[in-house]
Amino acid sequence: MAVFPRPRQALVIASVVGLAISAAACGGDDSGSGNGDSADCAAFDKYDGNDGKKVSIYASIRDTEADLLEQSWEQFTECTGIDIDYEGSGEFEAQLQVRVDGGNAPDIAFIPQPGLLATFAKAGKLKAAPADTKSSAEANYPADWLKYSTVDGKFYGAPLGSNVKSFVWYSPKQFQEKGYTVPKTWAELISLSDKIAGTKEKPWCAGIESGDATGWPATDWLEDLMLRTAGPEVYDQWVTHGIPFNDPKVATALNQAGEILKNPKYVNGGFGDVKSISTTSFQEAGLPILENKCSLHRQASFYANQWPEGTKVAEDGDVFAFYFPAIDPSKGEPVLAAGEFTVAFADRPEVQAVQNYLATPDYANSRAKLGNWVSGSRGADINNFANPIDKLSVQILQDQSKVLRFDGSDLMPSAVGAGTLWRAMVDWINGRDTATTLTTVQNSWK
């Protein structure tokens, strides 16, 4: 799972001011396409000929983050005359299927699950990406990343936003006051957890409730531990069902995750016992760190946007994040990542124009300047990412020495990755044993 509401009102104000200036500059005469000034809109000439056309986009991005998203293509719409009708939904995965089946598909969707993307592609519902989109994607993203939106040899969409999932959030101030050191290995992470538990405090807080998507945060734990215990090659076999879901290697990874998540001495700081994890919303799960009710919260880079307004996210701030430690750093430091892919259910010229633009470095840099966003595009200028955790994430994604793997549950067939696996992880948190949990998912994979 990749994208959720991200309340950051302060950045919106700054963004609106900046874009008001941009829109004013682009709103001169009507001599060019759309309503933009011909000089300022020169970069958009390639999208001419679509003035007055409408393109609908549907995704899971909501609230303040949706406002930033719409601002990011404001100059494009001003200059081309294309009207983008955007809708974000908390029930995106389920409702997208309903809309497609009902003949009411959006023109474009931002799909964070390659497994769901493949389901639509194999059903003949998606349109292959335009040649310009493919060329731009190939020039700016790793080949491995583009495999996730390629089905049966056809490329369907470029990446949009990205996030890094291998992070643990903490309070730098609390660590300094209590003499805690950021752990570099799994052994050091457990040692720190034991040290905090020894003070009669719960070191970890966690939450996996997310409406219809409840359970997805627990799958991230399993995926990160699969990368660390079994390695990237076995991970690749696992997500494609090259090995059974209840293979002993998977059990090892889940049990290692359970060293923390199912340890009553470790969780759930600020909320209750182990079972409270299943009823605690992922948005609220890390907040006890600010109240010194827990010290550690494993969650992706996008969690930077869940902290209350006024929270300083920085190495010397109220909260920051460190890399979720490898078990044996000498064997490399794997990184779990995720993101959305821009795919189309229609191939009208105006739809292809929008899809082409969203694949470009121009768009990536336009969105980056607004804040609260991460991109793996090599054409994205690191200096355009102001938020420290976003900048760190982009550096990781652009580092070609890193072993990156996409979110495993998102890669699996949607009925498994976004279905039986999510539910099975909830049951596991609530007391089901590892063997039964994994066998349940294995039996559902057809």
Extended strand count: 11
Counting helices, strands and paired strands, the structural category is alpha/beta
Number of individual domains: 2
Low-confidence stretches: 1-33
User: What do the pLDDT scores average to?
Assistant: 90
- Straight-line distance between termini: 22 Å
Architecture (CATH level 2) name of the largest domain: 3-Layer(aba) Sandwich
Shape: globular
Classify the fold: give the CATH topology of the largest domain: D-Maltodextrin-Binding Protein, domain 2
Write out the CATH superfamily name of the largest domain.
Periplasmic binding protein-like II
Helix content: 40-55%
- Total number of helices: 18
Rg (CA only): 22 Å
SSE string = HEHHEHEHHHEEEEHHHHHEEEHHHEHHH
Biggest sheet, open or closed, and with what strands and sense?
6 strands, mixed
How would you describe this protein?
The protein is about 40% helix and about 10% strand. It is an alpha/beta fold and about 450 residues long. Residues about 1-35 have low confidence and may be disordered. The radius of gyration is 22 Å and the shape is globular.
Task: Outline the secondary-structure elements.
Blueprint: H1 9-25, E1 54-59, H2 63-72, H3 74-80, E2 83-88, H4 92-101, E3 108-111, H5 114-122, H6 131-140, H7 143-147, E4 150-151, E5 154-155, E6 159-164, E7 167-170, H8 172-178, H9 186-197, H10 216-229, H11 232-239, H12 248-261, E8 297-298, E9 320-323, E10 334-344, H13 349-358, H14 361-368, H15 388-398, E11 403-406, H16 408-411, H17 414-429, H18 434-444
Parallel strand pairs: 1-2, 1-3, 10-11
Antiparallel strand pairs: 3-10, 4-5, 6-10, 7-8, 7-9
Signal peptide: 1-25
Family: Belongs to the bacterial solute-binding protein 1 family.
Keywords: Signal, Transport
